[in-house]
Design brief:
single chain; two-stranded antiparallel sheet
């Protein structure tokens, strides 16, 4: 039995065993359980079973893949947890879990954001993305590729681009090159600011990235005097994560002052 890749699920099954082995070895911590997202036919899963001492679980929604994995004794039914985007990881991994996978390309960014939402449970994250997306995740300030993915990831994780993967190692081959990245959580899992506002500011400024900050942030704080500072003449790609934390604290104070003046 072979599983046919389904376009609507964004499936491109990895068939190169050496690359699968390299991905499985990306996770430094072997004692924490591993959750693989999108195992397909278990090429990566087999190597994870060899590498992990904390146990391997998979998040899969394709019934054909689930049947294949169970019938070939790659995982048991108890190890299959369903749709990653709908999982409450706290129900399964009280002490933490590392995330890994050859991620379905059509939801790879959603998978990453979901992991960031659960950062307190996820010390490490590694896997395959489209090369362009991987480059955006690890991009540095000043780069045209530096954006929402970069800031939100690097706020909580050290991000490393490991290696590029050619199209021919997949079945069916995608039309783009892929890349494997590794994320390692920073010591502090919280930012020194209002994190909800931080996220809003990052998204607001990059959604109008051609504008200077003062233009974008008027949507949040109105015509505040704080926006007249030279700092707000910059554009979002020129800022570091620390700069966004700084701006968030300024905006928080300005918003609170506006509320007080209205009252």
């Amino acid at each position: 039995m072979q599983v046919k890749a389904k376009k609507h699920l964004g499936q491109h099954f990895l068939k190169d065993l050496e690359i699968a082995k390299k991905i499985a070895q990306c996770i430094d911590d072997k004692n924490t359980p591993i959750l693989e997202v999108g195992p397909g036919m278990g090429v990566l899963t087999n190597f994870l079973n060899e590498e992990s001492k904390g146990g391997v679980y998979v998040a899969e929604i394709d019934r054909d893949s689930i049947a294949y994995l169970v019938e070939n004794n790659i995982v048991s039914k108890e190890q299959i947890l369903g749709d990653f985007l709908k999982l409450d990881l706290h129900d399964y991994f009280v002490d933490g879990v590392n995330i890994i996978g050859n991620f379905p390309y059509n939801i790879s960014s959603q998978i990453l954001f979901r992991a960031i939402e659960n950062k307190e449970l996820i010390p490490e994250f590694a896997g395959m993305f489209q090369k362009e997306v991987a480059e955006r995740i690890v991009a540095s300030p000043g780069s045209k590729k530096f954006g929402i993915l970069s800031v939100m990831t690097q706020a909580y994780y050290e991000a490393e681009y490991l290696f590029t993967v050619d199209e021919h190692v997949f079945n069916p081959p995608p039309r783009v090159k892929s890349a494997v990245i590794h994320l390692k959580r920073k010591k502090n899992t919280t930012l020194d600011c209002d994190e909800k506002l931080f996220k809003t500011i990052v998204k607001t400024t990059f959604n109008t990235r051609r504008k200077m900050l003062r233009g974008s942030l008027r949507r949040i704080v109105g015509k505040s005097e704080v926006l007249q500072d030279e700092f707000f003449q910059k554009r979002p790609e020129q800022l570091s994560v620390e700069d966004f934390v700084h701006i968030t604290n300024i905006m928080r104070k300005a918003i609170d002052n506006n509320k007080e003046s209205i009252e």
